[in-house]
């Protein structure tokens, strides 16, 4: 029996589209390409998500590769949720229904330490039994977790956890990450973005 559901955030609970965020700034096509490359596709962005680089240091690193006219745009993109925080249609109802059925619902996502500043604004947040973001665990999941087989896949991992097998990435992460993993993986369905 499935008792817990783990949700990713970007592309599952909220719309997350960096190109759209840049479009909201009304910059030229050339500047859009620069901002995408020098903000969202940088090592600094991933290090913020991993919790190994602070926002000020990351911003300085990004701005060093941008012309001064785009420094303000970079600052705005660093807080993308201020530009637009849009819940994914139908997900609040789904999460609420799962809670009503007695399921535990958890958030497990790559995000910076500032994630509580915006996630708590979303109505879906009130249903979460727990949450873990990569920056607080100092661990960044790149790509698929071992228990997922495809976009929005739903697969019970009961047999694997019952056999005592913990996916390798979970073993390599921080103790908090492992504790959350062990807490929810006894019988779980995962919902993740592509």
Helical residue percent band = 40-55%
Rounded to the nearest angstrom, the radius of gyration is 18 Å
Major beta sheet summary: 4 strands, parallel
CATH architecture of the largest domain: 3-Layer(aba) Sandwich
The CATH class assignment of the largest domain is: Alpha Beta
| Shape annotation | elongated
- Which stretches of 5+ consecutive residues score pLDDT under 50? 144-188
Structural class, judged by helices and strands? Answer: alpha/beta
Strand content: 5-15%
Number of domains: 2
How many beta-strand elements? 4
Mean of residue pLDDT? 76
Order of helices and strands: EHHHHHHHEHEHHHHE
Strand order of the largest sheet: 3-2-1-4
CATH topology of the largest domain: Rossmann fold
Count of DSSP-assigned helices: 12
| Amino-to-carboxy terminus distance | 26 Å
Describe the fold and architecture:
This protein has 194 residues and is of the alpha/beta class. Helix content is 44%, strand content 9%. The chain contains twelve helices and four strands; from the N terminus they run βαααααααβαβααααβ. It has helices spanning 18-23, 29-40, 43-50, 55-63, 71-78, 80-83, 91-100, 115-119, 134-137, 158-162, 168-172, 175-184, and strands at residues 4-7, 104-109, 130-133, 188-191. A four-stranded parallel beta sheet has the order 3-2-1-4. β2, α8 (115-119) and β3 (130-133) form a beta-alpha-beta unit. α4 (55-63) runs antiparallel to α5 (71-78).
Topology, pairings included?
Layout: E1 4-7, H1 18-23, H2 29-40, H3 43-50, H4 55-63, H5 71-78, H6 80-83, H7 91-100, E2 104-109, H8 115-119, E3 130-133, H9 134-137, H10 158-162, H11 168-172, H12 175-184, E4 188-191
Parallel strand pairs: 1-2, 1-4, 2-3
């Amino acid at each position: 029996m499935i008792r817990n559901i783990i949700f990713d955030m970007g592309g599952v609970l909220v719309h997350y589209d960096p190109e759209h965020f840049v479009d909201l700034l009304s910059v030229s096509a050339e500047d859009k390409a620069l901002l995408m490359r020098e903000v969202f596709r940088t090592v600094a962005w991933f290090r913020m998500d991993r919790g190994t680089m602070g926002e000020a240091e990351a911003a300085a690193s990004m701005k060093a590769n941008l012309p001064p006219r785009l420094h303000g745009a970079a600052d705005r993109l660093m807080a993308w949720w201020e530009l637009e925080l849009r819940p994914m249609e139908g997900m609040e109802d789904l999460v609420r229904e799962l809670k009503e059925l007695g399921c535990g619902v958890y958030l497990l996502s790559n995000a910076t330490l500032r994630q509580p500043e915006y996630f708590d604004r979303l109505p879906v947040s009130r249903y979460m039994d727990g949450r873990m973001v990569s920056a607080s665990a100092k661990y960044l999941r790149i790509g698929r977790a071992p228990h997922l087989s495809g976009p929005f896949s739903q697969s019970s991992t009961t047999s694997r956890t019952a056999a005592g097998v913990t996916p390798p990435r979970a073993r390599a992460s921080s103790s908090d990450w492992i504790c959350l993993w062990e807490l929810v993986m006894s019988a779980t369905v995962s919902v993740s973005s592509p």
